[in-house]
From TrEMBL:
InterPro entries the record matches: Glyco_trans_1, Glyco_trans_4-like_N, Glycosyltransferase_grp1
Protein name: D-inositol 3-phosphate glycosyltransferase
Domain Glycosyltransferase subfamily 4-like N-terminal: 32-211
Organism: Klugiella xanthotipulae
Record GO biological process: carbohydrate derivative biosynthetic process
Xref: PANTHER family: SULFOQUINOVOSYL TRANSFERASE SQD2 (PTHR45947:SF3)
Keyword Isomerase attributed: no
Residue ranges of the TM segments: none
Residue stretches making up the Glycosyl transferase family domain: 220-372
KW Zinc (keyword) present: no
Lineage of producing organism: Bacteria, Bacillati, Actinomycetota, Actinomycetes, Micrococcales
Entry keywords, A to Z: Glycosyltransferase, Transferase
GO molecular function, one term: glycosyltransferase activity
């Protein structure tokens, strides 16, 4: 199995003895989302530095289970695939049966004997590994990429039970994260959010990081006004707000919108686009190759992220690394990336009028102003270097 997303973090041989690191993921390649991409890049970067990295992840199909040597981000590593089932309310999600996780965790820990366990969510695989690793005195690091509220879209429970469900999920998260020597999440805003709802303290913000050199910025005026969104087509992304904003842009801009990605709202959003009369201005590209994705970033005029539930937004960082002005909702962690009036603008969440106004500001900016926003994006993304992220986790692994 080969990951088709070849990023190449620089190799930094460890100055101390290599570690055996077990990373537990409820979502991993071939899933396409921020949590999976982060785990892939972290694992590949650690392998490049000489560490022995093992991944625990759901199987790609129910029958294809076991231990496989897989190429992830250009690096080969052992991936322990646990039997999983499709969750059909979701367009791609697979889950491991919760009551099997601890027995499976015991088996993999006995086989691998890791120096450290790093789980990427508290839900199933992370829970099983954390409980069993704690019994063995293995150092545990926990990272949170999940808002309990986001699970509601796919939980298929009555509305009357939703508040109870969220409270239970946060209590569950607290129990699992309390097994860890250190708890991290991608931004300070996300750390504050986790502490507020779980009761945890001392959560460490560590950027997911990207390899900015893999992206190409075109620092010149655009001949077309192309708005770009890349991400999962799910309700919390509020892509419907972006579609409505497109109808409110000045007609003489001739602006078009490229939507890259798939998700459970794909059909609904295509239908809405037709109802709004946007069929000739909005293109749904679905999932694309990495080469195609890089082309979309390079050739766009402005990035739009209307989501209200981003704990960081790797896609927004990728847009910044591609030299794009960014227009994002003033929600959750997006203000950490958008310096309003410098590399783009923040807009009122769910407000299509404000989004349209901010997109118009970018698309009508004089060339020197547009170039200044591009350069501000390139400068702003420098602090999110993946190699700094990997070094920070190495330090946490060693205590």
């Amino acid at each position: 199995m080969t990951n088709q997303i070849p990023h190449t973090p620089a190799s930094h041989p460890p100055t101390e003895a290599p570690l055996c690191i077990l990373i537990g993921c409820d979502t991993f390649y071939p899933d396409i989302n921020g949590a999976a991409r982060f785990a892939e890049r972290l694992a590949a970067g650690l392998v490049a530095r000489g560490h022995d990295v093992h991944i625990v992840a759901p199987s790609v199909t129910h029958s294809r289970t076991g231990v496989f040597t897989e190429s992830i981000e250009g690096e080969r590593m052992k991936v322990h695939r646990w039997a999983s089932w499709r969750w059909y309310p979701h367009d791609w999600l697979r889950f491991v049966l919760p009551w099997t996780a601890r027995a499976r965790a015991r088996a993999v820990l006995n086989r691998v004997k890791p120096d450290v366990v790093h789980f990427q969510s508290h839900i199933v695989i992370g829970r099983g590994l954390a409980i069993e690793a704690q019994k063995r005195g293995i150092r545990i690091i926990g990272t949170n990429h999940v808002m309990a509220e986001n699970i509601l879209d796919f939980a298929t429970i009555p509305n009357a039970w939703k508040d109870w469900f969220v409270r239970v999920q946060w209590k569950s998260a607290a129990r699992v994260f309390n097994t860890a020597s250190a708890v991290t999440t991608p931004t300070r805003k996300a750390a504050d959010f986790l502490e507020l709802h779980s009761g945890l303290t001392g959560v460490i913000p560590i950027s997911c990081g990207i390899e900015a050199a893999n992206y190409t910025a075109r620092l010149e005026p655009r001949s077309e006004n192309r708005v770009l969104f890349v991400g999962r087509l799910t309700s919390e992304k509020q892509i419907d707000v972006l579609l409505r904003a497109m109808t409110k842009l000045p007609a003489d801009l001739g602006a078009t919108l490229d939507i890259v990605g798939g998700g459970d709202q794909d059909h609904n959003l295509r239908t809405l686009s037709q109802k709004l009369g946007l069929s000739d201005r909005v293109t749904f590209h679905g999932r694309v190759s990495e080469e195609q994705l890089l082309g979309f970033y390079t050739n766009a005029s402005v990035w739009a992220m209307p989501s209200i539930a981003e704990l960081q937004s790797i896609a927004t960082m990728e847009a910044m690394a591609s030299g794009l002005p960014v227009v994002c909702a003033d929600a959750m962690a997006l203000p950490h990336l958008v310096h309003d009036g410098e590399n783009g603008y923040l807009f009122k969440p769910s407000d299509s009028d404000d989004l349209a106004e901010k997109l118009t500001r970018v698309l009508t900016a004089p060339p020197e102003r547009y170039l200044a926003m591009q350069k501000a994006s390139l400068d702003g993304v420098k602090v999110h270097d993946i190699n700094s992220t990997i070094s920070t986790f190495e330090a946490l692994y060693r205590g």
